[in-house]
Amino acid sequence: MKKLFAILLLAGVSSPAMANLSIRHQSSLQHTVDAQQATYSRLGNSYSISGTNVTTSHTASGASSATTNGIGVNAYSASTGVGTVGTITGTQSGTGSFAFAQSWTQGDIGGTGSEYLDFGSVSVTNAGTQNSSANAPGTITAAHAITLTGTGNIGSATTGQFVTEVTAF
Predict the structure, then answer these.
(1) Counting runs of H as helices and runs of E as strands, what totals does the chain give?
(2) Alpha-carbon distance 76 to 44, whole Å?
(3) CA distances (Å), 98 to each of 36, 51, 58, in order?
(4) What is the pLDDT of residue 13?
(5) In angstroms, rounded to a whole number, what is the distance separating the alpha carbons of residues 61 and 85?
(6) How far is 126 from 86, CA to CA, in rounded Å?
(7) What is the rounded distance in angstroms from the CA atom of residue 49 to the CA atom of residue 79?
(8) DSSP character for 4?
(9) CA-CA 20 to 30 A from 51: which of 6, 31, 106, 144?
(10) Where are the domains of the chain?
């Protein structure tokens, strides 16, 4: 009876294993080539003047008389926006010592016909080098072996990837 009970117990409690598996293998290559890029900043005209015990005068372009306390910018180009510095005269006023300083930064050209290389602050990154059609970025065999051949070019990247996915349901 004990033997029969053990056999019935095993037969009634255990069930056959039912499992479905899905296995997927995937290999891929990716090759990217960077584009050229340029960043630039146009520098504007900048003029400053300072002093103590000094009177300035300046005759602007086309003016018939000097302007007292003139700032020294002669003219701006209507097509490019670039300024030119005129002549400024400093005369001591009052008694004692005097100080006079001026600073001029000529701006970059502007306008729609300008090339970016005309600007004062330019950073250019050249485009990457692509592979020729005879030189593919790599190969993948039927056994999913990956060989990368598209590496080493400036501004490019090649990636090989193998993925295995196992799903039990």
Answers:
(1) 1, 13
(2) 12
(3) 54, 7, 19
(4) 58
(5) 10
(6) 40
(7) 26
(8) H
(9) 106
(10) 15-36+129-168, 39-124
Distances (CA, A) of 92 to 17, 59, 89, 141: 106, 18, 10, 88
Neighbours of 3 (CB within 10 A): 7
Q: What is the pLDDT of residue 161?
A: 93
Which amino acid is present at 109?
I
Q: Which two tokens stand for residue 41?
A: 């900043």
For residue 34, give the nearest of 126, 136, 149, 134 by alpha carbon. Answer: 126
Give per-residue pLDDT as tens, 99-149: 878 787 878 776 555 566 677 777 888 888 776 655 678 888 988 889 888
Cα 41 to Cα 33: distance, rounded to the nearest angstrom: 26
Q: Is the pLDDT of residue 17 over 70?
A: no
Residue showing tokens 């090339």: 115
Secondary structure (3-state) at 2 = helix
61-106: per-residue pLDDT in tens?
777 777 777 666 677 777 777 777 777 777 888 777 878 787 878 7
Find out whether 22 and 60 touch, Cβ atoms under 8 Å.
no
Q: What is the C-alpha separation between 120 and 107, in angstroms, rounded?
A: 8
40-60: buried (b, 16+ CB within 10 Å) or exposed (e) per residue? Answer: beeeebeeebeeeebebbbbb
**Contact criterion met (CB below 8 Å) for 137 and 158:** yes
